[in-house]
Structure formats: structure tokens, C-alpha cells
Design goal:
The protein is an alpha/beta fold. It has 26 helices and eight strands. It folds into four domains: 224 residues, P-loop containing nucleotide triphosphate hydrolases (Rossmann fold, 3-Layer(aba) Sandwich); 54 residues, no CATH class; 71 residues, Orthogonal Bundle (Arc Repressor Mutant, subunit A); 129 residues, no CATH class.
């Protein structure tokens, strides 16, 4: 490991940008910090999805703590092989040892100097003449080390209140987690606060982390703070901070819907808009940084799980188990349930509340990342297959699902033609006049060249209701023009018949 890896320091905060949102969490964290300063030690966990702002929130608390007289030390866990046991703790103590006067350090370490020096060899370099630890069995040795570390921290905090931040504990090694459990039980009467950050999905997939958090949650000193997405007002503030201008109401709402208030995703999307010289016009894209973050989570899944989720992503944000199983003919019901359990554990999908056998992606950008990994040809054919399966499942009563069917058949028009698109678009319009031309139905209909001939157009030009059509994006393309003309042509007859019935 490099020298910088061996001696971690707090990550630099974005000084030029304001910290947005989290007022409730910061109030609670500042209150906990005040309690710790008064001699009632505290442990706080900041958890949430990648990019939600856990480390940034910890950084803001650390900045505040230093104004309150706290001494700050920061360590983080290594995502990879080769890190020695206790590595996050060793890095944290290393900087403390290097920056503390020898006489003060010797008094704070106390009689556990031999054990501490085994964890942080720099103690010997700083103090010299460190005795060799007494040889005992491994269990006794570990207990002695834990007691030495805990006593060291409490003595150090008595001289100066101490804030320790352990970042990314979902990657922590087992010895580090055991030491954390031990210290957390000992700090009730100390001027010490420990802040932990963790990704929920990765923590849930690590039994040792799960057990550690379960034990911590039983301690009076422990509080868990689950960070969610920013609210609309905070999204506006975030946009101003990043872009230097205000976002109008439509853009702010679009950003919120697209990113669900995830600060990292928001920043990436705003920078993408700026790089393209746009201010929110058109579709919001998927920045490379967002792809990479989501891709890291997806790579932890099995190939078959990714295959199932990729197919589900074409269905939409939420999907039905029975329908997905029918589309994935090669997957048995048991296999598919196990694969979805894998995705549930990874927090990439979740059960749809109040809907049995229905799932939804935990974030719209997860669905978008998976969907955009497919070739255009493959996606078109999946839409065709999904549309046909839904037709069968909905049986003789497709009216309630006409817009959904029209959406899939619009995407499948290059291989199926436009007859089913028009049929279900008209059905949707009959139930909800004025909606069949919304972008959700026609915007994906890129081209139907080769599927529009005079006989078909003549058949599509009969009917008994006028259907208002709102032109979608790219509506000037030949395929879109033909699709709209076909629906309009059929709609004129519909309008006349309806007028006669209404007298």
C-alpha cells in the first residue's frame, strides 16, 4: 500500500459548495456531539445507498466538531484484498501518534503500550524503549489489545474531546468490527463520539457487519441515521450551488424524479447538462459516473440474476413475477424466486408495498442502467415479447392496461408494425381522452419503415372516435408521421359516431 493509504486523513470537503439539506440529521448529530462533550459517549451510524451523502454529512459534523474543541481522527475501510487486521483503526491511531507530544502520548497510552505498539509500530518510533508484549494465547492477547485501545481512547478523550470517524464499515475486516463492538460498550462515561458510515446493501450482505450493527443497536449510546434523498427545495438549492443559477419548477421536479434526490446522482446529471450546454431541455441522460456506481453494485450479482433484472428493466420501474417468469421461459419459478431474493438482498429491487408478487427497482437509475445495457435490437424484441405476454395475461379485459400495452407495442413497432400500437393507443384514449399521444406511448417509436403499406393504412383509417394526439419527440421522422396519421385517420370516424350518439 502507498504511504497515503497507510496514513489516511479526512477527505477534503468541497469548500466552494454549500452543504445542502440534512438539517434534521445534523441537529441530532450536533446534539449527540454535545452529549459526548459532556462525558456521555455516543456512537452514530450514517447509512444509505451509494452517493446519498454519508461521508459528506460526516465531514460536515467533523468540521463543526472542531469548532467545539474536538480533536478529529478519521479512518476508513479498504475495499480489496491484502489489508491487515485492524487496518482502519491502525490508520486512525497512526496519525494521532504522529501528531501528539511524546510525554502526553505516553501518559494516554498507559500500561497497554506494548499492545498498542503491536498495532501501531510508530508508537515505538515515537516513544522508544517499548517492552515486548507478554506471550499469551490468542484470545487473551486480543482481549488485552481491546482493553488497551479502549483505555487509551478514554484517557485521550479526557484530555480533549475526541471524534472518530470510521468510513465504509461495510468493508471492515472482522477483527476491526470486534474491536468496534468492544469500544462502543466502554464509552458511556467518556468524552468520545464515534461516527460510522455504511452502505445498507453491502452491510446487509456481510453477516459480521450485520451482527455488529445488531449488537450496537442494543446500546443506549447508539443511534442509526438512515439518509434518504433530498426534498424538492433542497434539490433547487443543490442546483444553484452546482450550476450557479436557479432551476425552474419543471427542471427541479424532473431532476428529483430522475435522481430521487441522491446528491451524487444529482451532481453528475447537472454537470452532464452543463457540459452539453443545456438547462434541462429534453431527456435527462445517464452520466458515466452514475453508470459506474450502479455498475459496481450490479457486478456483485450472479450472471443469471443480472439477466433476469435486465429483462425486468424493459418492463418498467415495477414488474410482476408471473409476467417476468413467462417472458424468461428458461427460468423455473424456484430459480427466478432465488434470483429475485439475491436482488432483494443487494437492495437493487424491493417488494412493491401492498402488491403480492410484484417488485420494483429501488432506484429509477438502476432500471435505466440495466435497460441501456441492451442493444436496440434486443430491446425491441423484448418489448414485443413482453407485450404479447401481457396480452395473454390480461385476457379479454385489456382495457385497464391499454396504455401499458400501447407503450410496449410502440417500442416493438420496428418488428411488429403499428397495428397493435394503434389499437391499444385508441383503447387508452377511449378511456382517457387526450392521453394516447403522450410521450409514454409514442416517444420510443423510432421508425416503422417497412411496416406501413396502403392496405394497412386503409384498415387503420376506419373507426368511430376522434383521438387528440400530442406529437412526441422526433415526431418529424417518417415512422412517427405515419403512426400519427394512422391514429388520427381512425380517430375522425370515431369522433363522428360519438357525436351522433351524444345527439
Amino acid at each position: 500500500m502507498s504511504e497515503s493509504q497507510q496514513n489516511p486523513a479526512p477527505p477534503a470537503g468541497p469548500e466552494d459548495r454549500g452543504f445542502v439539506g440534512r438539517s434534521r440529521e445534523m441537529d441530532l448529530l450536533r446534539a449527540a456531539l454535545a452529549e459526548a462533550k459532556d462525558g456521555r459517549g455516543r456512537v452514530a451510524l450514517l447509512s444509505g445507498e451509494p452517493g446519498i451523502g454519508k461521508t459528506r454529512t460526516a465531514h460536515e459534523l467533523a468540521r463543526y466538531a472542531e469548532t467545539q474543541g474536538f480533536r478529529l481522527r478519521w479512518g476508513w475501510c479498504y475495499d480489496g484484498e491484502g489489508a491487515p487486521p485492524y487496518w482502519p483503526w491502525a490508520g486512525l491511531f497512526r496519525t494521532y501518534v504522529q501528531q501528539t507530544e511524546p510525554d502526553l502520548l505516553r501518559g494516554q497510552i498507559g500500561p497497554g503500550i506494548a499492545d498498542i505498539a503491536g498495532l501501531v509500530p510508530e508508537v515505538g518510533d515515537k516513544l522508544g524503549d517499548v517492552p515486548e508484549p507478554t506471550q499469551v494465547d490468542p484470545e487473551q492477547s486480543r482481549f488485552r489489545l481491546f482493553e488497551a485501545v479502549s483505555s487509551f481512547l478514554k484517557r485521550a478523550a479526557a484530555d480533549e474531546p475526541l471524534l472518530l470517524v470510521l468510513d465504509d464499515i461495510h468493508w471492515a475486516d472482522e477483527p476491526s468490527l470486534l474491536l468496534l463492538r468492544f469500544i462502543a460498550r466502554q464509552i458511556d462515561d467518556s468524552r468520545l463520539m464515534i461516527v460510522l458510515t455504511s452502505r445498507e446493501a453491502e452491510a446487509a450482505g456481510n453477516p459480521t457487519v450485520t451482527e455488529t450493527l445488531a449488537q450496537l443497536s442494543r446500546l443506549p449510546a447508539f443511534r442509526r441515521h438512515i439518509l434518504g434523498g433530498l426534498e424538492i427545495d433542497d434539490v433547487r438549492l443543490f442546483f444553484r450551488s452546482e450550476a450557479g443559477q436557479d432551476a425552474d419548477a419543471d427542471l427541479a421536479q424532473s431532476l428529483l424524479a430522475h435522481t430521487e434526490g441522491n446528491p451524487f446522482f444529482l451532481g453528475e446529471v447537472i454537470r452532464l447538462l452543463a457540459s452539453q450546454g443545456r438547462h434541462g431541455q429534453g431527456e435527462l441522460g445517464l452520466p458515466q459516473g452514475v453508470r459506474e456506481v450502479i455498475g459496481q453494485r450490479l457486478r456483485r450479482l450472479s450472471d443469471r440474476c443480472i439477466q433476469a433484472l435486465t429483462t425486468a428493466s424493459v418492463v418498467g420501474r415495477d414488474f410482476d413475477f408471473r409476467m417476468l417468469g413467462t417472458v424468461l421461459e428458461d427460468f423455473s419459478e424456484i430459480d427466478l424466486l432465488e434470483l429475485l431474493d439475491e436482488a432483494l438482498e443487494a437492495r437493487l429491487v424491493e417488494d412493491t408495498p401492498g402488491r403480492s408478487d410484484r417488485y420494483q427497482f429501488t432506484h429509477a437509475l438502476v432500471q435505466q442502467t440495466l435497460s441501456e445495457s441492451l442493444s436496440a435490437s434486443r430491446k425491441v424484441r423484448l418489448h414485443a415479447r413482453i407485450g404479447e405476454v401481457l396480452e395473454t395475461l390480461y385476457g379479454n379485459r385489456p382495457e385497464n392496461h391499454a396504455a401499458e400495452l400501447a407503450h410496449h407495442f410502440s417500442q416493438a413497432a420496428p418488428v411488429l408494425g403499428i397495428e397493435k400500437l394503434v389499437h391499444y393507443a385508441l383503447m387508452a384514449a377511449h378511456r382517457r381522452p387526450g392521453h394516447c399521444g403522450q410521450r409514454g406511448i409514442l416517444s420510443g417509436h423510432r421508425t416503422v419503415e417497412g411496416h406501413d403499406h396502403p392496405g394497412r393504412r386503409e384498415r387503420l383509417s376506419t373507426g368511430d372516435r376522434r383521438v387528440p394526439i400530442q406529437p412526441p419527440e422526433d415526431s418529424g421522422r417518417p415512422g412517427h408521421r405515419r403512426a400519427r396519421r394512422a391514429v388520427r385517420g381512425r380517430g375522425h370516424g370515431l369522433g363522428d359516431a360519438q357525436a351522433r350518439r351524444n345527439g
